[in-house]
Design brief:
Structural class: mainly beta
Oligomer: single chain
Strand order of the largest sheet: 6-7-8-9-4-3-10
Radius of gyration: 14 Å
Distance between the termini: 30 Å
Order of helices and strands: EEEHEEEEEEE
Shape: globular
Number of strands: 10
Length: 133
């Protein structure tokens, strides 16, 4: 049986479904993710072809860098997606998924940029910048 995951924004204007596997959780500590979420970005990836979005006209995309953009609900402001230009996968915030997710922790990226007000001591692999490879 194929994996199916569902999620959406706070106000319900955007709902999504992933018909396929999700990756382990990536915790991103870069300055952009911290500013968008207030802490760090906990995300999982799925193939773009596995994602269906209902209420897509309520998703606003912000080009946050030359290589990526962030999708959020234009009504309630919920941070939903991160997409690298030209990639075949898309990231979604783990907190926007309906439970149970069945996801497990993976690793931390951009720890060189993490905030000075918290520590990372969970034993997961840590990468100063993005994940190698």
């Amino acid at each position: 049986m194929a994996e199916v995951h569902a999620g959406g924004c706070l106000c319900g204007a955007v709902k999504y479904r992933v018909d396929g596997p999700l990756t382990k959780i990536t915790y991103c500590h870069c300055g952009q993710c911290r500013r968008q979420t207030g802490l760090y970005y906990a995300s999982t990836n799925a193939a773009v072809s596995d994602l269906t979005v209902v209420g897509e006209d309520n998703v606003t995309w912000y080009k946050s860098s030359e290589h990526g953009r962030r999708g959020f609900c234009r009504n309630c402001g919920s941070a939903l997606f991160w997409k690298s230009e030209g990639a075949g996968h898309i990231s979604m915030q783990v907190g926007t998924l309906d439970a149970p997710t069945g996801l497990v922790d993976g690793h931390h990226i951009y720890v060189a940029d993490k905030g000075d007000f918290y520590e990372i001591n969970d034993g997961l692999p840590q990468y100063a910048q993005g994940q190698p490879g």
